[in-house]
Each structure stands twice: as C-alpha cells, then as structure tokens.
Structure to design on (750 residues):
C-alpha cells in the first residue's frame, strides 16, 4: 500500500518542470503573440511572425502542427505552459511575456497593434539552472522573493529546458495527503478580494487587476440578508455570480474587441465552483483537478463572498516552518511511544526472571517454558533494536516521519470518535441517573406524605361523626334549657354559634376534598416513579399517561399572560402492555413537556386576543392523547439492536400505539430529521440539554423493540407516534403470538 504523504523523490524540482512551453522571436508583433497565447499556445513562432505554415515545436517531439491543420498531431492546451511566452534570440533566453503584462498594457490604454514583443517583454527574467539538488522549496522561495508566477529553467548552456509554475508544482505533488488534509480553506484563503459589479466594463476590470496586482476579479451582486441577533432589519452582502481572469483579457485583446463597451455580465465565467471555509485543502485540490480550474470561490452560509483560494494558496501548506512544526509534534509522540515500549520491555524482562525462578517447581514444563522465554526474549530484543533504529531514522529522514504521522493521525481520529461516543454515553448515563434519582425522590416524598395523609384521611370520618354528635347534643341542650345563663349567652354570641354550626360541616368537607386530592397526587407520583417495577411487566399505559398529566397539571393551567392548555383524551380499548413502566413514563414526560413548550406562543396569543377583543379566530392550545392497537401482518423487519435487523415470521403482530398531538407551530423538515440526534435542541441556551428525545428513542427502539416517529410541518402542529409490541417475548424468541393475543385481533383496532 502506498503511504500517505510526500516522498523525498517527489519533492525534487525535476518533477515540477513543464517541458512544453511557447517561444517567440524578439521581432514578433505583439498581436501575433496574443493570437498564439489565446489559441495556439501549443505552437512555436519562428522569426518573421505568425502564419499558417508548420513550425517546429520546442517540446522535444518530432513534428507538431498549429491548430487548423489537418492530419497532424496537435498538443492539447493542458500539455503546454499557459500564461506566458519565452522570447528567444539565437537559442538564448532574453525575456518573458505573461498574461499580466497584457492586462497592464490594456489598463494603460496602449494600442497593441504597432508593438513588438521586445518592446514590452520583461528583460533579464529570473531563471534557475537545472540541478538535481534543487527542490520545490527552491522554486517557491523564488516565487515569493521576486513575486513572479513563471520560473524558466535553463541548462548549462543557458538554453531554456522548461518552466516551473504553481500549477506544475501542484500537479507534481499530488496527492498532497499529509498537509492538505490537516489544513482548512479558512487557513490559506485570501480575504482581500477584488470584486466588481455585473455592470462594470472589461476595461475597468483590467485596471483593477493592474492596480491591485491580481490575476482575477470576482463579479458580485448585492443581496439583502436579515440579521438575527441585532435590532437592524437588513444589511447588504456581496453574492458572487461570476469571475473574469487575465486569460479572458488576453482572449478579448486577441479578438480586437472594444473592452470599454463590454460589460462583465456578458463575458464572465459562470457558474462558479465554491467551497466553505471549513472544507479541507484536499477538497479544494480535488475540485481544481476535477473542474480544471485554478481558482475557487469561498462562500459563507448564506452564499456571501468571504474569500478566494488559488493554486498559490494551496502551496502555502508547503511552508517549511509549518512542516517542521508538524514533524516536532510527531517526534514528541514517537518518543512517548518509545518510553512506553521500554517500560513494557522491562516488565517482560521481569516476567522472564520470575519464570526462571519458578523452573525448580515446574520441572515437567521446564523445557517448554524455557523455549517460550527464549523466543519472547529474542522477539523483544529484536523489536527493541528495531525501535531504536526507527527512532534514529525518524530523526534523520523526513519521509519516515510522514509515514508515522499518517498512522498516528488515523489513531487520533479513532480516539476522537471514541471520546465523542464516550462523552455521549456518559451524558446519557448522567441523564438516566438524574431520572433515577428523581424517581427515588418522588417515591420517597410520596411515601412520606402517604403516612400522615392516611392518618388525616382515616380520622376525618370519625371527626365528622364526633362533631355531628356534639352538634346534636348541643341542640338537645337548647331544646330542654331554652333560657341560657348570661355567661353562656355571651360566649355563644362571641363565637357566633350559628355560623359555626353551618360552616363546620363545610370545613370538614373541604378538608376531606383536600385529603382526597393529596392521596390522588401521591398515587400518581408512585405510579410515575414505579421503583418497585424495574423489571419488565404488563401494565396499564393509561395510568402512566394520567400520572404524567397530573404531575404536569401546574404547567397546563392558565397563568398570567398564558391561556390554559386543553387536554383531550381519546383512549382506545388498550390491553395490558409488557414494558418497563418507569422508562415509558419518562418518555411520556419528555414528549408532553415538549408539547407544552411548543404551545407557549399560542397560549400568549390567545390571552392577547382575548384582551384586545380581536376579530381574528385563534385556535385554543390543545394536546390530544390517542391510544389503540395496530395489527401488522406478514413479514416485517423489526429492529432490535443498533447494528442488525431481523424479520418476524409471517404471522399477525399486535402493537400498542400511543399518539401525542399538539396544534403548535410545527417544525421544518431539517429540524425533524435531526430531532432524535443527541445534544440537538432548538430551545434557548440553558433551557434544554438536547437529550430528552434521544433518550426517548433509545428507550422505545432499543429497550422495547418499538418505533417512534415524528410527523410535523410548519404551521401544522406536531404528532409523535409510539408503537411498541404488546408482548416483548414475541420479539425475543421470534415465535408466533400466543393464542390470547391472537384472539384480541378482532376486538382491538386503531
């Protein structure tokens, strides 16, 4: 397998030299050079200018023809260095002429018809003598030092043998797996972008290129963008719609077009190939290779222009300082691994000593153990020597470091994924423990309240009877002794005896009503916690729903600024369902709490409309609970673990269906798709953990072998549908449903 990264040989400059290039004589008219650069970049001009005859090509091939000649071999444009022409006189390089020079002349308004190439070329260009000692870093250093894009390579006699460009370096180094996969587009993109509107003239674009020394201008148009976190309503952003490059200017000049009358909208290159700032440089490299372009536009989340990436940007990752920084980090990791291996070696040596001391007691296995110890010792010694040799080689050889870095990077990625998964499981475990602790607290509070309330509830009847007997006795006294003494008469008026007689029974009735409500609340709390029902058993799901509603009763009532939520129960004829009751109650609590939060806006609008006597009809916030039975016939895949799906036999299967529906604002499709992802929440910071629906999904699907589905659309409300098997044994064994449940098929329908 070929290791990722660059080899020592691939860094040699020889691989980046493009031997197919254009040459012209010093007296060649500039208009002929323009035609050659725009159409015939694979041909060579001889002294005397451009015509339709065959010319020898400076490519090392035997014969080549210009475009338009029939039955002759023609190089494609990609075979020849584009963007420049070498000016040769008697086999010696005397100058170079590039596309940027054409743009500069165009921007200055100089007529190109009467000029010759020697008048506008760059004389004494920067060159590099061909040598095996030069590498791509030598060329990159000259590019940065002299701010050039074309570097002619000459031989010992001073004759050009090729040209090195950013494009040739990028092609020679592909695939650049080591650094481009570690860096992102945002690290190297150019944010100072020269852009113009679609109505700008091509002449103005050429002036912008010359003024700012750039090779392209991005064509943009303005678009409104709404600000979310500020009070301002709209702001203008630049949306890229096209691009005009130096190559386009060259082609327009070759066609002798009037650039001042041409607008960018008519000549720009479109569509654009765009990237995100978070994409890796490897993605940028692949897009350039796939689309045969040298520039990619970087856009934001709303399509706005944020930067541009060129071939020069990609080569920034070959900065020696950054590369050696990566090497130092890898060296540190290697040293840590070496220390661990040394400790392992010492531990193994200690095992050998212990085994040698036990030889006297293990005479029968002496020979076999001795062979094993010797083999292990030899392997460890050889491994230790190999590791020492690898360490020395890694300190000297950069290629070996890249191989180790690739392996370590894969391990780091796996470790990162493992840590993320562990963090998710840990958070879910904490949430489960919180719910367990809450259940313990609820059960404890219910137990502690149950004792005194039973005492009060049990004695209210006796207290009522005793007080009634006292009232009857007091009435007998009044009948037989109508003339009370003054002291009794005064005390009777003081305590308002008539009011006490009429109000005391009402007081006892209200106390009994309060005691009844407390007993119902305690029973609901015990049903909700169900700590005594940790094992799977058959329960009535309606009791769990009612208990959850009773606990959430305070949130359903009307408050200041919010209307009451109406709860509609459409319970079907649901039998006992085999499940984990406490865990299903947790699912009901999560779904009902989310439904209450989804109706928050509707509750506020109801109160506001009622206050202002609005004529608009706003529906009342409502939560509907439906239950029933669903029969599934034939083979149907039933998921029972995260990694496998099996099919039930061709029999009838009964599922308990619970539907929780609200008439809130609903949700978009993108939100619905991620609803059950861990840590995903649409609530404000501090109001939700993003684990409620994820844990509910785990409980329904993985613990009960069922399904949970969300049906929602903007403005249409939200409906959660839970389906779980009535008997879990049917999903653990794969056998048919027992005769009792089969007989219920005719009685229970959704």
């Amino acid at each position: 397998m070929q290791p990722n990264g660059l080899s020592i040989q691939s860094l040699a400059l020889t691989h980046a030299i493009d031997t197919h290039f254009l040459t012209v004589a010093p007296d060649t008219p500039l208009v002929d050079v323009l035609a050659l650069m725009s159409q015939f970049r694979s041909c060579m001009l001889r002294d005397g200018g451009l015509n339709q005859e065959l010319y020898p090509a400076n490519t090392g091939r035997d014969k080549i023809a210009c475009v338009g000649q029939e039955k002759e071999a023609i190089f494609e444009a990609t075979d020849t260095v584009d963007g420049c022409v070498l000016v040769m006189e008697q086999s010696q390089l005397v100058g170079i002429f590039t596309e940027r020079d054409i743009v500069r002349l165009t921007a200055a308004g100089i007529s190109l018809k009467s000029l010759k190439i020697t008048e506008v070329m760059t004389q004494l260009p920067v060159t590099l003598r061909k040598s095996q000692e030069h590498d791509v870093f030598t060329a990159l250093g000259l590019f940065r030092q002299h701010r050039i894009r074309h570097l002619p390579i000459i031989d010992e006699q001073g004759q050009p043998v090729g040209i090195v460009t950013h494009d040739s370096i990028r092609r020679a180094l592909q695939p650049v797996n080591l650094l481009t996969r570690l860096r992102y587009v945002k690290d190297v993109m150019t944010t100072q972008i020269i852009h113009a509107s679609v109505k700008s003239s091509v002449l103005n674009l050429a002036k912008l290129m010359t003024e700012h020394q750039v090779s392209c201008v991005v064509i943009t148009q303005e678009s409104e963008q709404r600000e979310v976190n500020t009070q301002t309503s709209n702001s203008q952003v630049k949306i890229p719609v096209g691009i005009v490059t130096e190559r386009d200017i060259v082609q327009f000049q070759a066609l002798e077009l009037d650039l001042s009358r041409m607008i960018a909208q008519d000549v720009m290159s479109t569509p654009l190939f765009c990237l995100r700032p978070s994409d890796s440089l490897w993605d940028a490299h692949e897009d350039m290779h796939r689309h045969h372009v040298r520039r990619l536009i970087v856009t934001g989340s709303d399509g706005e222009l944020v930067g541009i990436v060129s071939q020069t940007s990609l080569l920034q990752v070959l900065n020696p300082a950054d590369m050696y920084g990566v090497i130092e980090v890898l060296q540190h990791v290697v040293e840590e691994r070496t220390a661990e291996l040394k400790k392992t070696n010492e531990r193994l040596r200690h095992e050998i000593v212990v085994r040698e001391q036990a030889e006297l007691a293990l005479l029968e296995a002496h020979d076999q153990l001795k062979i094993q110890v010797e083999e292990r010792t030899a392997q460890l010694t050889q491994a230790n020597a190999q590791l020492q040799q690898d360490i020395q080689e890694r300190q000297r050889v950069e290629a070996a470091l890249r191989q180790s870095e690739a392996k370590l990077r894969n391990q780091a990625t796996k470790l990162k994924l493992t840590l993320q998964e562990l963090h998710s499981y840990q958070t879910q475990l904490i949430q489960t423990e919180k719910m367990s602790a809450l259940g313990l607290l609820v059960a404890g509070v219910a137990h502690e309240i149950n004792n005194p309330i039973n005492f009060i509830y049990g004695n209210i009847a006796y207290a009522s009877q005793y007080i009634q007997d006292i009232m009857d006795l007091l009435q007998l006294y009044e009948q037989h002794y109508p003339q009370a003494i003054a002291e009794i008469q005064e005390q009777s008026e003081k305590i308002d005896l008539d009011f006490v007689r009429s109000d005391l029974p009402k007081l006892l009735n209200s106390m009994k009503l309060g005691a009844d409500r407390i007993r119902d609340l305690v029973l609901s709390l015990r049903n909700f916690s169900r700590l005594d029902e940790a094992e799977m058993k058959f329960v009535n799901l309606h009791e769990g729903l009612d208990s959850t509603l009773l606990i959430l009763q305070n949130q359903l009532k009307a408050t200041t600024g919010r209307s009451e939520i109406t709860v509609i129960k459409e319970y079907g004829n649901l039998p006992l369902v085999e499940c984990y009751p406490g865990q299903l109650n947790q699912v009901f609590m999560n779904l009902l709490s989310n439904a209450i939060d989804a109706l928050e806006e509707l509750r506020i609008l109801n109160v506001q409309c009622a206050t202002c006597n609005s004529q608009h009809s706003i529906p009342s916030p409502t939560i509907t609970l439906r239950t029933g039975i669903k029969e599934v016939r034939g083979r149907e895949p039933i998921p029972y673990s995260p990694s496998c799906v099996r099919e039930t036999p061709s029999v009838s299967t009964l599922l308990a269906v619970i539907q929780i529906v609200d008439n809130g604002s609903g949700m978009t499709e993108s939100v619905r798709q991620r609803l059950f992802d861990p840590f995903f929440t649409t609530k404000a910071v501090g109001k939700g953990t993003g684990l409620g629906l994820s844990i509910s999904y785990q409980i329904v699907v993985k613990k009960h072998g069922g399904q949970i589905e969300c049906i929602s659309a903007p403005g249409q409300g939200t409906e959660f549908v839970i389906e779980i098997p009535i008997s879990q044994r049917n999903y653990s064994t794969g056998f048919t449903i027992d005769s009792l449940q089969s007989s219920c098929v005719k009685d229970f329908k959704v």
Observations:
- Residues 559 and 603 are 10 Å apart (CA to CA).
- The chain has a mean pLDDT of 75.
- The chain is about 50% helix and 15% strand.
